[in-house]
Amino acid sequence: MWLKRLSKVRGDTDDSSSPTIASEKYDARPSSSRKYSQSQFAQIDSQEKMYRRPQEPQQSYSPPRTQVNKPAPLEHSTPAKSEPLPDFLTQAFNSALKPYTDKIDALQAQVSDLQIWVEQLEAQRADVHSWIDKRGLRPDVPLTIAKTMDNQPDAASTLNTQLDRKITIVNFDLHRLQDDLNDTISSSHFASAMLKFLPDIQRLASLSTGPRYAFALILKLGGNLNSHGLESSEGGDVASRRDFYARLDNVMVEVVRRRFQEGEEWQVAREVSRMEKTESYLRGFGVDSYFPMSLEIMRRELDFRGDGTPPRYQ
């Protein structure tokens, strides 16, 4: 009996497993249950569409690429550098030399400061020299200042201008004093006033291009004494005039020699003629000689230029 039941159960299972029988059974269900299920599924489907999340675009899947590591190039193995050993001898030398290098640096700083100071002094010196020349005091400056001023290119012409002006002023003052006193000043006093310019004239003659200026100034000193008055025939005045011209002649000799040595274009014959005329004029006032040594040197120069015989200045 149990075999009959088993066969029956197998038969039912076979029928239900076939698709045709299963669909027939599904269609055989009541219509109410089918409708309910469809409406319910439609509602659920609409709710899912309402609350459905936006789907991201799917990326195409590509399998990861496996990177193949290339073997690194072989590097040449370099031996490790060893640190140099400290050179104690060099360190000792540098430490011993450091005080001297520091002293050199300090001295260089002092030299730069002194250079600035020297430049300031030179500017001040230039201002002082300009102030001296503006007032015509170059002939009266001390010797230390005179040496510095005589190194200038125009020292000779500047000193000549100031000396000439000063000689003219002194001569004018002596004549005015003589007029105020209504009496003549002795030739000795006048000659002593003129002879004070001889050191400055000698200084002028030692400068470049200075001898020609000094030559004219010495003649001017003699002319001032001549214009003072030669009427006095007293023995003291005649002796003073002779001594005055002798001292002028001694200075003039050196001036003439220097002038010839400079080789300037000089009309010697004209100067000799003028001095000879003055000499003949002064003979009437007791002056026997007028620049005799200077005239001798100048005549020798004229003879040398005429026949080629060298002059003897010594």
What does the model show?
The chain is an all-alpha fold and 314 residues long. The protein is built from 12 helices and no strands. Helix 9 (210-228) runs antiparallel to helix 10 and helix 10 runs parallel beside helix 12.
Q: Strand count, sense and closure of the main sheet?
A: none
Counted beta strands: 0
Class per helix and strand makeup: mainly alpha
Sequence stretches where pLDDT stays below 50 over 5 or more residues: 32-36
> How much is the average pLDDT?
77
- Overall spatial form: elongated
Order of helices and strands: HHHHHHHHHHHH
**Helical stretch tally:** 12
Our Rg estimate from Cα atoms comes to 66 Å
Per DSSP, what share of the residues sits in E-state strands of 2 or more residues?
Answer: under 5%
| Helix content class | over 70%
SSE topology:
Blueprint: H1 2-17, H2 19-27, H3 31-50, H4 88-134, H5 143-149, H6 155-181, H7 187-195, H8 198-205, H9 210-228, H10 235-262, H11 268-282, H12 292-307
Helix pairs in contact: 6-8, 6-9, 7-9, 7-10, 8-9, 9-10, 10-12, 11-12
Entry keywords:
mainly alpha, 314 residues
Could you give a short description of this structure?
With 314 residues, this protein is mainly α.
